[in-house]
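Lab manual, section 2.4: Encoding a predicted structure.

Procedure: take the sequence of the chain (375 residues), apply the prediction step described in section 2.3, and record the output as structure tokens. A sample record is shown.
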Amino acid sequence: MDFKLDETQEELRALASDVLAKEAGHERLESHEKSGRPYDERLWKALREAGLTAVCAAEHAGGAGLGPVELAVVLREAGARAAPGPLAATLVSTLAVSRYGSREHQRRVAGTAVSTVAIREPGRALTDPPATVAEPVAGGSGPVAADLVAGGSGAVAGEAGAGGSGPGAGGWLLSGRKSGVAHAEGDVLVTADQGLFLVHAPPAAPEFASTGEPTATITLDRTPAERVAGPQAIEGVRQLATAAAVAQASGVLAGALRLTTEYIRTRKQFGRALAEFQAVTMQIADVYIAGRALDVAMWSGAWRLAEGLPAEEDLAIAAFHTSEAVKALYTCQHLHGGLGLDVTYPLHRYFAHAKHLAHRLGSGDVQLDLIGGLA
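Recorded output:
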């Protein structure tokens, strides 16, 4: 199987690489970390102006109309810089709405503003059916329905989604809890028992991932929502979110490998470069192999998603190798010696991102169980 990028994808990769090189260097990221802001607005603006936040949005909504492979191309470059921010959340939500939503939904969630997805639930595996309950508002009458039509109280105005909106056109009410919601502001695409829904992010106490990025546990208490699609789309959105996470992880490991390779090439001990010692070359080779294994599974999963083929097994294998990437990051830290533990040195960002992504996907044992069940 040939995973070489085509001309469009290569141009997209080069664009993402150039923008991130200019806007996500070590000094800029360090300055952002000290600022306490949820994300670097200047970086987000640069990505938006380059069209990178809208690559997966529908063309009629101003996007490029691209798919899972292009999503992976962009997010791998972001991972290679360990760049924080709402890019992944926005790309996943725009691609999901582009695939499953109505034209009105697609115009609303078009990558020009931050949007996100809410899939995980406390105490439940990522692959479990959602426990969040969706209740239809019958007939489109009454104060709640009127508020929905007006777009108030966090409601999403617009036409019914691909899954319909239940009895009448009044909308839906969601009840449940979603955890680990990244950059929970603006539009949130929520999975529930009756399908996919759009809500406006409700107020939530701030939480923070290991990367320092804001996450939230959001409580939906009969929260007004609009259905984007029926239950048949839930698994598709989960797979898109998994593809995004493993693409970032692939970039994170590639960036850490590049940094570590440069270090052992120039750092001398006993008058010789570290790279000249056999034990060191064996360890860096293990990191390279871990990266290649993750790459193959990640690209295979993204390609199968783009082609409409079953992708769950490939994505589970990529998620397993994401947990293995954390072990490879330990090796990178070891090869740096004491410098590998210095939080002012860029390696700490790669380690934090790898830990965060592995946590989002679940442990390696969880992925092995899933792979075994699919075999």
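Check your result against the sample. The chain has twelve helices and nine strands.
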